[in-house]
Write a structure and sequence with these properties.
The protein is mainly α. The protein contains one helix and no strands.
């Protein structure tokens, strides 16, 4: 069987194109994965740093916030007592007869 040089050239060209496209697609995908990992690492570091700063801020203000809540609870109790004194005793539906 005889194969012409043109047929061999066409087959080799097709194989070369398939290999070139496959390699470029693989390298492009590898670049995307590497880029995504780099962005994820950078964002992860930023999120960890912000988490640390926010935790420190919350821990620092937690004591003052607790004292403010305690003061507010005390003032609300005093307000309830003052309103109860203004309203007077609860009126009864049935009156005592003598």
């Amino acid at each position: 069987m005889f194969v012409s040089a043109e047929i061999i050239a066409v087959v080799l060209s097709a194989v070369g194109i398939v290999v070139t496209l496959g390699t470029s697609m693989f390298l492009g995908f590898a670049w995307c994965v590497r880029r995504t990992d780099a962005v994820e690492a950078r964002l992860g570091a930023r999120i960890d740093e912000l988490d640390h700063r926010l935790g420190a801020r919350i821990d620092g203000s937690e004591k003052s916030l607790g004292s403010r809540i305690d003061n507010l609870a005390h003032e609300m109790t005093e307000l309830k007592i003052a309103v109860a004194r203004l309203e007077g005793p609860v009126p009864h539906l049935l009156t005592r007869s003598r």
